[in-house]
Inverse folding.
């Protein structure tokens, strides 16, 4: 077990494309860190650089206090779980798990003992003689974990290991990997583009965009205090609604509506006053927007909105709306999918809500949950 | 639908596949099965083809060829020629395929090598035979180069000496046949997921361990299929040997195909030639059954 420290890591390809720019990250001993970001953000490249499968253009990488930049993958004391699992189809489960020990010339009896221990932990004992082709997706995933565990590495590296599983199995394996990591206490760096995995599995989450680290924090703090509009939009599903507005006194003016901000908003963000009379970006999460007909007791301010479509999920309704405000793009390519062509906002209503597609409604807004960003830099205020 | 209509419909459904197959079955029957059965018939007749009323000979012609030392020499030469060809086709094909698949070779050079390595495949057997006859002539390029390098002291008559002729024709056949393996193995190599090698790198595999534990097992289905096919085809090679050595000198390159040809068209002993052809057929059939069994098992 060891800490993994990345200092000013850069990766530039031959065509001068910079995949990773000045990445600084410190993963503590035994920590479960998630690297998350949209497609092409450089998260897999970063992981592969830690593994030694990609050269590091510049910067320093230390695993367990040892500078490993010039070390081949085998000497870095890491184990990796691949997205495809990379199980050898011609070998049995047992042979796959024991492969690294076989390469190291460990005696057969020692290999068998270790494989049996791991198989017991991962509930693979009855499958040891099977070939990967005869296993289910979840079982293959566990074998891949077993192959990583057999080496007793200083750190686990996992590259989207759940992306090939169906939704139900993914939920189950999420929990299994998390509890296994806690049980083993091995430093783990886990790459995913799925922000639900990011929020539920890791001790801390590092959000990357365009090869640049945006924020590293606990899932709760990422959700509550995103450092910029990109992180705000990326973390949370559906994404945070971001709109342009003008701050006039203590009122946010946007299109045909105005929302009065409470004093607490200015106390919490002293910089907000400096935006008086200027454009500002405000964000509100779908779960902080309500059907006003159900919220009369809470005295939220309301704004007019038109319902464009509803997704009834049973436990909640995802309501696509159109409000009179200019939507701001967070820069997250995946967030665009949350909005239809005719809508610019998404709300999460309780299933008892009776709104229907096409209806004009009053949307209750919990203004205490507003997030504010600079319109130019998109940095949080 | 009435019962009559239903049974008519069922009959049509049952017959339809055979109707679709009938043109190809007819062609195979006329061009392959009929000659095969006829040759088997000839092998049991006296003076087959030559006489209008051939008599039944039983196993006489089989006994005659099995008693002929040239037949056994031919069988041994065929096995040597075939085994060496298949082994070297596979080895050279594998080495070249690994080279062409390697990231360490410059892509432009790789494309040039790809064209160069595949060249032997473009030539017909006759051209290959002529090329190697010219190259391996006593006054040819090969002797000249080997003498200049000091490997041989005097000119070697590669195709004319009983000591070297079989090795020389085998060498020419190896040169002519490796591209099939190379192309097939290259396609196989390109289909092996990169993750396998990366996982092995992390596990500490050396280059030779990756070859033994990943590459070869992954290519095994291709290696077995192509080796069996190559074995079947190489056993029947005729033009290359006929044009380079004609089976000589002193039967030293006589293989079953040239032996059979000579029986038929030099000695006009078509009955014995048929018996020899049936022996080739049986060996090929055995290998083909092996191939089919392997394909089914997969």
């Amino acid at each position: 077990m060891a800490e993994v420290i990345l200092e000013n890591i850069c990766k530039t390809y031959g065509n001068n494309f910079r995949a990773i720019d000045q990445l600084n990250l410190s993963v503590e001993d035994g920590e479960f860190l998630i690297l998350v970001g949209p497609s092409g953000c450089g998260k897999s490249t970063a992981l592969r650089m830690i593994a030694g499968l990609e050269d590091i253009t510049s910067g320093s990488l230390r695993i367990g206090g040892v500078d490993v930049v010039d070390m081949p993958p085998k000497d870095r004391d890491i184990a990796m779980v691949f997205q495809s699992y990379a199980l050898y189809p011609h070998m049995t489960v047992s042979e796959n798990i024991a492969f690294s020990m076989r390469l190291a010339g460990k005696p057969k009896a020692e290999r068998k003992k270790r494989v049996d221990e791991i198989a017991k932990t991962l509930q693979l004992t009855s499958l040891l003689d099977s070939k990967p082709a005869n296993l289910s997706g979840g079982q293959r995933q566990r074998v891949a974990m077993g192959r990583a565990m057999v080496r007793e590495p200083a750190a686990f590296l996992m590259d989207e290991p759940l992306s090939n599983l169906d939704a139900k199995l993914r939920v189950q394996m999420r929990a299994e990997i998390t509890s296994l990591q806690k049980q083993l206490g091995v430093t783990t760096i886990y790459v995913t583009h799925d922000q639900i995995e990011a929020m539920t599995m890791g001790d801390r989450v590092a959000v990357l965009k365009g090869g640049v680290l945006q924020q590293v924090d606990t899932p709760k703090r990422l959700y509550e205090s995103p450092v910029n509009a990109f992180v705000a939009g990326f973390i949370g599903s559906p994404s945070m609604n971001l709109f342009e507005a003008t701050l006039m006194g203590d009122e946010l003016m946007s299109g045909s509506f105005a929302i009065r901000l409470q004093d607490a908003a200015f106390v919490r963000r002293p910089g907000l006053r400096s935006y008086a009379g200027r454009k500002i970006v405000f964000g509100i999460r779908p779960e902080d927007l309500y059907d006003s007909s159900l919220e009369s007791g809470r005295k939220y301010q309301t704004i007019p909105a038109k319902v464009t479509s509803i997704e009834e999920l049973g436990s909640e309704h995802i309501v696509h709306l159109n409000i009179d405000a200019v939507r701001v793009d967070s820069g997250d390519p995946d967030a665009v999918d949350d909005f239809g062509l005719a809508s610019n906002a998404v709300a999460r209503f309780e299933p008892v809500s009776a709104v229907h597609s096409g209806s004009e409604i009053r949307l209750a807004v919990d203004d205490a949950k507003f997030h504010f960003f600079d319109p130019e830099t998109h940095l949080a205020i | 639908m009435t019962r009559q209509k239903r049974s008519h419909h069922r009959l049509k459904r049952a017959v339809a596949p055979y109707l679709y197959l009938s043109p190809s079955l007819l062609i195979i029957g006329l061009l392959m099965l009929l000659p095969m059965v006829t040759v088997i018939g000839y092998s049991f007749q006296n003076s087959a083809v030559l006489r209008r009323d051939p008599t039944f000979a039983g196993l006489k012609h089989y006994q005659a060829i099995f008693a002929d030392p040239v037949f056994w020499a031919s069988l041994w030469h065929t096995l040597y020629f075939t085994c060496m060809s298949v082994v070297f086709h596979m080895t050279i094909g594998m080495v070249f395929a690994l080279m062409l698949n390697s990231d360490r070779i410059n892509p432009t050079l790789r494309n040039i090598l790809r064209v160069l390595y595949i060249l032997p495949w473009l030539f017909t057997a006759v051209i290959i035979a002529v090329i190697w006859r010219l190259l391996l002539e006593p006054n040819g390029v090969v002797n000249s180069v080997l003498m200049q390098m000091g490997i041989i002291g005097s000119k070697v008559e590669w195709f004319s000496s009983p000591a070297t002729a079989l090795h020389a024709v085998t060498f020419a056949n190896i040169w002519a046949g490796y591209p099939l393996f190379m192309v097939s193995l290259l396609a196989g190599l390109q289909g092996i997921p990169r993750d396998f090698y990366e996982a092995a790198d992390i596990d500490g595999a050396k280059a030779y361990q990756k070859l033994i534990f990943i590459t070869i097992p992954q290519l095994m289905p291709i290696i077995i299929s192509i080796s069996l096919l190559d074995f079947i085809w190489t056993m029947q090679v005729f033009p290359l040997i006929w044009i380079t050595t004609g089976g000589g000198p002193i039967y030293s390159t006589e293989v079953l195909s040239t032996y059979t040809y000579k029986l038929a068209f030099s000695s006009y002993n078509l009955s014995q030639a048929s018996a020899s052809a049936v022996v080739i057929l049986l060996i090929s059939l055995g290998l083909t059954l092996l191939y089919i069994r392997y394909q089914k098992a997969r």
Summary: The two ends of chain B are 43 Å apart (CA to CA). Residues 3-42 of chain B form the longest helix (40 residues).
